[in-house]
UniProtKB/TrEMBL annotation:
The chain crosses the membrane at residues 7-34, 73-92, 104-127, 147-163, 184-206, 237-263. GO terms for cellular component: plasma membrane. It comes from the Bacteria. CDD domains: TM_PBP2. InterPro entries: Bact_Polyamine_Transport, MetI-like, MetI-like_sf. Gene3D superfamilies: MetI-like. It is found in: Cell membrane. Residues 69-256 form the ABC transmembrane type-1 domain. PANTHER family: PUTRESCINE TRANSPORT SYSTEM PERMEASE PROTEIN POTI. The keyword Cell membrane applies. It is a multi-pass membrane protein. Belongs to the binding-protein-dependent transport system permease family. CysTW subfamily. It comes from Salipiger thiooxidans. This is Putative spermidine/putrescine transport system permease protein.
Length: 278
């Protein structure tokens, strides 16, 4: 019993250090973003204020922070929607074996192990070779899909491998068409997984740096803008930006979690009502 108790405390301490390692840098940036007007980029803090958050909303001498934020938000939404749609279609297609399905699966997953900077370079070169404009909404969009789609497809493959097809058979027995079965039976059942794929797609796009570096053209996304600021901004305003973007990420994650929780409650309520009806 004593050895087991000791192991428990050792493992608890290990995971506490691991959590500190994960979130320590973020917490440090968050604390330093509240420096006073005369504060610098390091400890010790010189006063406590919201000065740098106010400064962030004023016109900056360098960069285009809010323009970069709008571009990252728009690109994230584009990637999110495309990832969800293509992942569902791919998951449905792979439910039946077809010629070359194994090779196609490994080709899709292979993009995860190719260095991101090479993907960015390759997409940029292809656009240049065809005389197309390198732009965050076209080449940047395409390069980011090589990152988000494999994750989305892997999730949907796992979902459909566990999916009980008797629900679809029951719907067809009731006279539902193929589209009605997908719309009113399959999609509502896998809705929480779709929200997970959407969250993956948006957050991976919103934070992506390497695959956007050579494909964004003349306009930076937010990660590129923050990287540029590290070379010419010498005030805690960059920390304030980091704190706000982190809070925005947590807000997005929270919204998705609340949506999943709401879907679960709705499904439980519908099941309860159906049980009472019987």
């Amino acid at each position: 019993m004593e050895k087991r108790s000791r192991s428990f405390y050792v493992l608890t301490a290990f995971f506490a250090l691991f959590i500190l390692f994960l979130y320590g840098p973020t917490l440090t940036i968050g604390v330093l973003s509240f420096q006073g007007p005369q504060g610098g980029l390091t400890f010790p803090m010189n006063g406590v204020s919201l000065h740098w958050f106010r400064d962030l909303f004023e016109e900056q001498a360098v960069g285009d922070i809010w323009g970069a934020f709008r571009r990252s938000l728009a690109l994230g939404l584009m990637v999110m929607v495309t990832t969800v749609v293509v992942s569902v279609m791919g998951g449905l297609a792979f439910r039946k074996r077809f010629a070359g399905s194994g090779a196609l699966f490994y080709l899709i997953i292979a993009s995860l192990v190719i260095p991101s900077i090479l993907i960015s370079l390759g997409v940029g070169l292809i656009f240049n070779q065809f005389g197309l404009r390198v732009h965050w909404a076209t080449s940047g969009f395409g390069s980011q899909l090589t990152w988000t789609l494999p994750f989305g497809l892997l999730i949907m493959f796992a979902v459909f491998n566990r999916f009980d097809r008797s629900y679809e058979e029951a719907a067809r027995d009731q006279g539902a068409s193929a589209w009605q079965t997908i719309r009113f039976v399959v999609l509502p059942i896998i809705a929480p997984s779709l929200i997970g794929v959407a969250l993956f797609g948006f957050t991976l796009s919103y934070d992506e740096f390497a695959r956007t570096l050579l494909t964004s053209g003349s306009y930076n996304t937010l990660p590129l803008e923050i990287f540029g600021m590290t070379t010419n901004v010498t005030t805690p305003v960059i920390y304030a930006l980091g704190t706000l973007t982190t809070l925005f990420s947590f807000l997005i994650i929270g919204a998705f979690i609340v949506t999943v929780w709401g879907l679960g409650k709705r499904r439980a309520r519908l099941g309860s009502d159906a049980g009472k009806g019987l």
